[in-house]
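Homework-ish question, so no full write-ups if that breaks the rules, but can someone show me the predicted structure for this set?
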Amino acid sequence: MSTHISDATSGAHEQIGHSEAGVEQKHLGEKSADWVDGRLGVYNLAKANLRKIFPDHWSFMLGEICLYSFIIIILTGVYLTLFFQPSMGEVVYHGSYVPLQGIKMSEAYKSAIDISFDVRGGLLIRQIHHWAAIVFVAAMLVHMMRVFFTGAFRKPREINWLFGFLLLFLGMFDGFMGYSLPDDLLSGTGIRFMEGAILSMPLVGSYVAMFLYGGQFPGNDIIPRFFTIHVLLIPGIMLGLLVAHLILVFYHKHTQFAGPGRTEKNVVGMPLMPVYMAKAGGFFFLVFGVIAFVSAIASVNPIWAYGPYRPDQVSTDAQPDWYMGFSEGLIRIMPGWEIRAWGHTLELGVFIPLVIFGLMFIVIAIYPFLEGWITGDKREHHILDRPRNAPVRTGLGVAWIAEYIILLVGGGNDLFATHLHLSINAITWACRILFFVGPVIAFMVTKRWCMGLQRRDKDKILHGRETGTIKRLPHGEFVEVHAQLPQEELFRLTAHEQNAPAELPAEVDENGVKRKVSAAAKLRAKLSAGYFGPESQIAKPTGEEHAEITSGHGHH
Amino acid sequence: MTSQDNMSEEHLPEAAHGHGGGAVVGKDGYFADPGLPPHEHRRTDIDEKAARRAERQVAMWFLLSMVATVAFIASYVIFKPGPTHHVYIWPIGNVAPLNFSLGVTLGVSLFAIGAGAVHWARTLMSDEEHVAERHPIESTPEVREQVFADFRQGAKESGFGRRKLIRNTMIGAMAMVPLSAVVLFRDLGPLPEKKLDTTGWKAGMLLKNMNTGEPIMASDVQVGSLTFAMPADLSEDDDDFQERIAKDALMLVRLQPGDIKDKKSADWGYQGVLAFSKICTHVGCPISLYEQQTHHVLCPCHQSTFDLSDGARVIFGPAGHALPQLQIGVDGTGNLEALNGFTVPVGPGFWERSE
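A: Not a homework solution, just the prediction itself:
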């Protein structure tokens, strides 16, 4: 294969060599391409990818938003480092913002104020950086939901799911560190909260806190340390993960929804060059343009209004950026449990939320492996599920989102209380109860909803769609005329596979000896029945059923 | 003729699509895949005039971007930076002209490039769907066998399995070498020792009003007021001001002596003036919301609520224990002073904290 290619290339060389100087201009692009290929061998790569086919669906652009906002964050972040001073050295402000005149503050805070007021365009870049971070995390979460609800995480894409998960996790923390850097009163409160959370860890808490802050809170080290982690360590890791994520997307080829002509063994769509280069490349500018526009008209994190951080001062309505809101909710709705014994304190009121925070992420990371184990499915999947056709998975996903939203509300309980004139205690108690009840209700409602949609699909297949045309029969009865779905629709609606629940082996083997069935196998069979039992899926109609019903037309 | 006028059988939808049995059934008993539908031409594919119009539209977007970039540079030169310049723009409100004009022009110059490119792709580039084959991700059995054989060969040639001495010492060396890196992190910070248990307060230390910087006369603290105080030896100009104020900040209230439910709490105050740590025992926010009627204080961060009339015990929220109280009295001139340091650690709970 490779020899064949190199033969072709050297043939092209000769041709150019033989041609006269008059056509040199025409071949300048080819010449430079040959120069590069002679050193990097890029033609094989280009052959596989220039006309690579990508399927089209609006939800596939969510991942693009993540990529583009990440690039915007890097570009604007580099600009900000040219002016930002990551130092907690104390200075007295004598700049252009009058309300802060003569006030003591850290150099970090002063330089962030100067970027906002004295560097032309500095405020805009700061705002674009912050807005892009907000969009970045939101887009990652929504992109992840798309992948989850369509089952795109199944084999062979489990590892790419993990890469994406790590990007979400790291992106959140890098966002937290980023908005902490200006050392303003609001973000300093967040850093104090982090100290309290670290201190609650049994055995190691006070040591970790001392090492992280370089001594007692707040110390002089946390801003410069956060700066290095924020601009170098985490973005470096994320860049690596991002490249790996994209390489795998190319390598696996993109998933597609079921439809006529689309199978597990092909991918139907349009080529990277030119369609997706133009569409995806153009989409980068659309995302950047919209974020720039939003940054022009909507203020985010007006640090000058908060003032510099002092540990004995605080403002009301102290909220983190939205993506940290659910951890705020965890910490707010937790009762103040504390165990004091043998000269030690176990601060459960802070430590339990910290553990649940970790668990909410771990379930995301392990879900593909969990579902793979339950289904026992070892095959590759490239055709996406419609969420309704996987009611338990969809229900679990919605339950997670419900929990997340309940915690977001808990994290803003003071805002809900003041804006809706409700008792903050009542809101907190409601969130405490909903923390347990909400996801269960969300799961049950979603599962039933999916089952209803499956029944509706079945009905549409067997009886056709409602046309809105009313027909009066000879004996006076009125009926609505139903039109049979076209073959494409019939195929699309029934293209999904339906798994049967895993069965336990018979209790006795062929020799009548009692078989040992492990607890894990029993659990798996139970979970499998939950996923694929009659309570969780409607058998899709066969062609036979369809023929039977449609042959006796008009008598349904 | 409208549809109501013609209700004959062949005009009804059911008739139009033919009756049952029209569906093609596949081998598996379900509906067969009809295959890719034929490509449908867009207007720009068949009408050269429409294509030229689309071309002009794309060019207009790119031109708009150029204009916006010029406007961006002009805005950069014309408008002054700083907090004092404002103009009112409906419906956004007051905006800084520089930020607003730079952002809008940058936004337009970028968006227009994107809009032009996407319009180009949608109207003029081929929208014919192509089919590419997928190949299984996993390797063929032959490749698998080859790789395993190569690996076995390599492992055999290295003698890794046979020469146990090399293997074990190498694993030992590799396991130990990261310890150097761990050791290097020791100087990130000091050990906790008793740092979290102690504060700057000690017996005889005067209380200083946080706002005025003056000592506090007991008689100046009125019922219903909330006063913030710090140790008299602490100054905002001190190098360690931030670390000390993070633990030493106090709040003072005065209660009618009859309203104080907790006997010890009353004893530690002076004529109903009580001094509590301002640092929340939950995660360390400064508590600042005081309800004069109930003598509850609320932490604005996570809504832990403490009852100052009852030894600052927790009555709601996530805090695990009461706010520490500082025992106070007055000196010869009637100024409030600490009679003792804090007897329990202030601020958030931690593993080594004993009470």
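Now go work out the reasoning yourself. Hint: The CA atoms of residues 34 and 41 of chain A lie 9 Å apart.
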